[in-house]
Amino acid sequence: MTVSAFTPGSTIGVFDSGVGGMSILRHIHALLPQQDLLYFADSGFAPYGEKPEAEIVARALHIAQYLLGQGAQALVVACNTATVAAIRLLRQHYPDLPLVGVEPGLKPAAAVSRSRIVGVLATAYTLRGEKFIQLQQQISAQSRVQFLLQPCTGLVDLIELGQIDSSDTLALLQRYIPPLLDQGADTLVLGCTHYPFVQVQIERVIAQHQASQLADAPAITLIDTGEAVARQLQRLLGAHQIPPNPHPTQLKGFTSGSASALQQAFWHLLELQPPVEAVEQEF
Ligand code: DGL
User: Fold this and answer.
1) CA 133, 222, 35, 60: dihedral to nearest 10 degrees?
2) What one-character DSSP code corresponds to residue 268?
């Protein structure tokens, strides 16, 4: 008689400083529909991009521990800023855990740019991080592409407030994006997981700026690495032999901010209505 091994369902923990990581979560949900997903929005501490490194590292370690305590068997740091600050320490703490971070898509951008000039939109913290600087040097040396770095201070705060289409958001985008186009960028990297949620607004600002120019405008490519991150997670789960769940996907949200704000964000950004729990800020 053969006794089939009991295979517990697998659960993936995903976290960000707030709602931005949902731009990664949507790709994971689509690619791995049979994995249970826990999403932690650290909205009580957002934005990370303006915080000291020690604070971001402490939050990342706390949240990782919390999600593992909730049953996560793999973690996705769905935040460029937290990846820069904490991924190395997280790997040291959990050497056997499947762990995926995100970083601005400089390599895919360099591969598609025809002008060889690429704009990188990210938080100030991400752009001055050692991990990012090394990546930039490596890709510049390989591709001879010039990267124009644009910290988008204030944008995460507005997206956290749900102000996707507000005049304040458009004013910030109008300040940050046209100078990159004027310097010849034909490719823009969305180097913060919040930014895909204002992609339509970014495209509108690009179109308005190009319409105001006399010369023929090149097509501008936007680079979002959400799908690539989901595929990397899929590869890691396979390598660790983590099986899919035998039952339909469960999704649950946690937040260090307001539960109703996270519920609204799930609905407005992803059209999902998972249960959401507010947790103590200092859990
Ligand atoms: N979504 C985070 C990132 O990808 C935002 C960081 C922040 O909270 O400033 O960098």
Assistant:
1) 30
2) I
pLDDT of residue 34: 85
Task: Render pLDDT for 32-71 as a digit per residue (tens, 0 to 9).
Answer: 988 999 999 999 999 998 889 999 999 999 999 999 999 9
Contact 249, 14 (CB under 8 A): no
Residue nearest to atom 8 of ligand 1 (CA): 47
Instruction: Return all residues near 99 (Cβ < 8 A) that are at least 6 apart.
Output: 74, 75, 76, 77, 87, 90, 91, 236
> Is the CB of 181 within 6 Å of ligand 1?
no
**pLDDT in the model for residue 282:** 66
Separation of alpha carbons 18 and 79, rounded Å? 9
Cα-to-centroid distance, 156 and ligand 1 (Å): 7
- Determine if ligand 1 sits within 6 Å of the CB of residue 13: no
- Give per-residue pLDDT as tens, 176-188: 999 999 999 999 9
> What is the rounded (10 degree) CA torsion for 258, 262, 268, 269?
140
Cβ-Cβ contacts under 8 Å for 69 (sequence gap 6 or more): none
Helix-then-strand count for the chain, H and E: 12, 10
Which runs of consecutive H residues, i.e. helices, occur in 70-190?
Answer: 80-93, 106-112, 124-128, 130-143, 155-160, 167-176, 178-182
Q: Is 192 designated active site?
A: yes
